[in-house]
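Example 3.2
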Amino acid sequence: MKSSAKSVCKAWVALLLLAACWCGGGPVRAMDGARVMELIRAQCSLGPRVPGTPAHEAGRQWIVGQMKALGLVVREEPFEARLALTGATVKGCRNLWGLPVADGPTSPAMILSAHWDTRPYADQDPSGRKPAMLGADDGASGVALALELLRELRASPMRAHLALAFWDAEDGGVNDQSDSWGLGARHAAEHPPAWVGRVAFGLNLDMVGGEGSHFRPETYSQHAAPWAVRQIWTIGRSLAPEFFEREGAQTMIDDHLPWIQRGIPFVDLIGWPFEYWHTAGDGPEHCDPKMLEAVGDVVHNFLLGEPWARAGAK
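Structure, written as tokens:
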């Protein structure tokens, strides 16, 4: 699998170098931040989507419905996970895949992902009471942005190359156990779909709308996919310099790591720091529609610069 992914990636990079960054010689600005906010609010209206709870099941149904409405073929991947924060073992975890066709995306394929669960409780809340948290930025924002990007690209030939993946049980870890985070992504990487050999690249969206946060290159991503990081931040600095910073790389334990360890280049696009991270304040009122719009436009233009858009995907 590794050699297959690397060979596809080399062909992809070669095509990328021949392509202009944006179609038509200029950037596309298509993202509607208000629409993304609607999708965030819809998830938060269900309550905290903690694995094993009724709100979690409602969240699963909501995401499945959204993907079906986009014309995607939905695949659910059940697994069991122990949430280190609570010590509870949950049998009802689900990774949710949205595919262009039942056989999966066309080569070269890309995984566009986010986690959809929320943390069992807000352990960083200043009250010290460990209240529930809605996870508007930490969870819902990445899901909302990925869904809206697919809606924007519904008529594009690149749609055939994109697989949506929403990871479960990402946010139940503890800080002194790096392997307690990203359990859904780890399960998926260890039990990959049959079409995984077509995957050349992955992009994970996490905490992409928190007010006051900003985006810096992530260290593991830089090592795994330096060309993609350069491309994303070049576009980001051009379209949204107020949100994208070149300096001060950050290291994040997130859902991209299991795939990097599998040999697939994966980039984590994550806003940090966020004042309301793992607190009860992580609600829609602290998400920034302008940031969501800017990040969506950056990712959209990154996708438009890829070889399937230039070479005429078939």
